[in-house]
Amino acid sequence: MDYARARKKAEEIVEQMTAQEKMSQLLYNAPAIERLGINEYNWWNEALHGVARAGTATVFPQAIMLAATFNPELVEKCADVISTEGRAKYNKSVEYGDRDIYKGLTYWSPNINIFRDPRWGRGHETYGEDPFLTSVMGRSFIKGIQGEGEYLKASATSKHFYAHSGPELDRHGFDAVISKKDEEETYIPAFYKTVKAGVSGVMGAYNRVNGVPANCMSVIENILRKEWGFEGYFVSDCGALNDIYEHHHYTDTAEEAAAASLKAGCDLNCGSCYEHLTEAYDADLITDEDLTRAAVHLFTIRALLGEFEEKRPYSDIPFTVVDCRAHRELNIKAAMQGAVLLKNENGFLPVDKNRALNIGVVGPNSVSVTALEGNYEGKASEYVTFADGIRRVFENSEIRMAQGCGYMTEELCSWDGHRNLYSDGAAVASVSDITFLCLGLDSSLEGEGEGADGSGADRKSVTLPAVQKKLAKAVLENCENVVVVVMCGSSMDIGEELLAKAKAVIYGWYPGAQGGLALAKLIAGEQSPCGKLPVTIYSEKNTIPDMKDYSMKGRTYRFIEEEPLFPFGFGLNYADISFENAGITAESADEIRVAVTVRNAGGCDVDEKVQVYAKYTDSKTQTPNFQLCAVAPVSVKAGEATRAELAIDRYWIKAVGEDGVRREPDGEILLYIGASQPDALSRKLGAPEPVEIRVK
User: Fold this and answer.
1) Fewer Cβ atoms within 10 A, N terminus or C terminus of the chain?
2) Prior bond to 678 cis, omega within 30?
């Protein structure tokens, strides 16, 4: 992107403005300045997994499922489709004079916070618990959204800078206290890497970080801009600047909060606090220079989007691309790549779709559209629920469906009906050769803010709700062949009995508008599952630290001290994969290149996700259990082998000291290359043996 050209254009525009006009442009709903030919512009738009909140759009799988693909190239393709549809919708909005909220080209996505606590309600908006995977997926998403031409196709925004992952109920007044080591090792890397990749926006968080509200931190100017070279704009989360004086009590007044944020480097206010910039200006709390700097940052982005060009870039993208057939097919592909097979007893799956079977589909997510969507969603022109997908794929079978229960609550003798449905679910199971038990949550039960019940959208535990366990027990008692499909966005312990007796378990996440069809196709073997867990699946027996404790001790696969239910990076397939002949092919000061042969002795083709983990030996510095440092999808045909090559950025294999400085490890580094984390549990659950390389 030509920032220099765009900045010059921005400076020419801003220098013609009065101080009051500059102030008006620092609010997310910036008004028109007719005398300068500037149209009104609403900066707030969302595109987490599709153009959101603005009508029809392709609804891709939720971000956590995109992360589960372990396929950065696929994420980039999805993001490219999102910005293509965004441009098409923008073109028509402009044509019809509609410049309202959610109609612009500045997308406040991706969410690159670390999913450090499995109970955090917004975790499914992220790319999981690992800073490397988050960085790689975030960079790919940004590249797809922004494009690589002279102009931004659309603007992406890395959020929420920089330590935000719960608790949701306290977020407006919470202080995230973090050590220098945890900051550098966990909370900062994805922001650093996405800034270096050219993201055009960064959004601040609601909370304080070590006592300072996120939008007032000196790191905005000193680290983001001066040290990392960030050239884009910085925006507050919505209403966050009001928190500075109302909840954090960092300042006494709104004008002081506005001044503190502007001077720290917050260019744009999503909210109303910057309406008080006039009082701050009159009280000499801010200068015209402060206003000019922020306005130039904002108009640089608008110039990069081509708003002021005689012929607007990307104006030839037609509206017909929106949720078109090709985009829906990519939706299906992404969902198939992100679904994770956790158990497959004696190769029970795939199920032959040509057989004439009695199939039961039971559970609260069987016909749920909400569970397809996730949150920050658009509205697709077509939805295929899980039950619908089974009907389409298993055309020769008799399909029966029962909801069986609600998500969380049991209501007996309910006058409203549709509450106590256990016997209905059991009845369907009793007449079925196979029962697909579709359990889980939806975004009303894990999400943002206060949540559906007003108690906070964070989960209280990682266990399957009791009503669903009761339904599962009834189904198990009436059908021998039960396959569990879990649709949720976070860690879910389905219970010992169900896990032991189910023939197979699939993690289906929130799989997007076409997700039900994608899951059915996987079950029928039209493609082998190849997703990997971007989070640790905890057991209800695991000790999980207090959510308010931001220390990484005992958290995520990198620092966990107990054996979980399923480990990060794990995921089975229908093939028989092995790894051999691994070695280092090239080394430099910045990078190590490795290669490995991936062999498929099974009877089906597979897209395996090769993973490289670093393990430090004899290091005096405390280091993670393992650290993911490279991923690569590789297609291997049945009975064949292929050579995979991966590049390891040395940044990820340096040890972080207590002072927050990355250094070359003082011990030896072991690199493990395989299809999973190189832990004993992954192998016990069926992952192939990884190969080892020593790096001195």
Assistant:
1) C
2) no
Which CATH number is 398's domain given? 3.40.50.1700
Tell me which residue of 626, 618, 494, 616 sits closest to 559, measured CA to CA: 626
| Beta-strand runs (E) in 336-410 | 340-344, 358-362, 398-402
Element (H, E) at 196: helix 189-196
Token duo for residue 15:
């220098």
Contact 394, 357 (CB under 8 A): yes
| Statement to judge: residues 296 and 432 lie in one domain | no
Q: Are 533 and 593 contained in the same domain?
A: no
597 with 544, same domain? no
pLDDT tens digits, residue range 555-606?
Answer: 999 999 999 999 999 999 999 999 999 999 999 999 999 999 999 999 999 9
* Residue numbers annotated as active site: 237
437, β-bridge pairs: 362, 484
| Overall pTM > 0.85 | yes
pLDDT at position 302: 98
Residue 411 is predicted with a pLDDT of 82
Three-state DSSP state, 690: coil
Same domain assignment for residues 496 and 593: no
CB count within 10 Å of CB 416 equals: 6
**What's the domain range around 259?**
1-19+163-178+195-304
The separation between CA 81 and the C-alpha centre of its own chain, rounded to angstroms, equals: 17
Q: How far is CA 416 from CA 182, 411, 413, 420, 427, in A?
A: 50, 10, 9, 10, 22
